[in-house]
Amino acid sequence: MATYNSSTTTTPPPIPGSGGARIVGGQDDTSGPGPEVMSASTLEGDSVVNRQGETLGDISEIMIDVRSGTVAYAVLSCGGFLGIGDKLFAIPFSALTLDAERKCFVLDINKERLEAAPGFNKDHWPAFANMAYATDLHTYYNVRPYWQRPENLQ
Prior knowledge:
The protein has helices at residues 40-43, 111-115, 131-140, and strands at 22-24, 47-49, 55-65, 70-78, 87-92, 96-99, 104-107. The protein is an alpha/beta fold. It has a single domain, classed as PRC-barrel domain (SH3 type barrels, Roll). The protein is globular and about 40 Å long. This is PRC-barrel domain-containing protein. It comes from Usitatibacter palustris.
């Protein structure tokens, strides 16, 4: 097992296969929390863009698998006006990359594919704990389900 020496390293090394969001930029900023450890409320409201730079929406919620303590999904809110008429999408957290310099998330998906993704509205949330739904969702975004990662298997 690798050890972490706080006297020679400013941030702990990433945990292999951790399945969290990737981080680009901001690694030299050790003045406060982030980008390695952040409050969920700090991430809510962050913009989500695709690799083409198109704005896809904003993070409205962070969903946590309480039993494992894992961030399972970020809820992406798209369209609408002042929260009215928004379409919501559960995005597996590992499908996102935090761009600490631009203070946004990047999702590797084009707008057309996102529009075709399974979505919901604020009055009709899906059963996130339903394994068939959750598996299909991770498959759609081409990421391994967080509960199948080695650190989550017991």
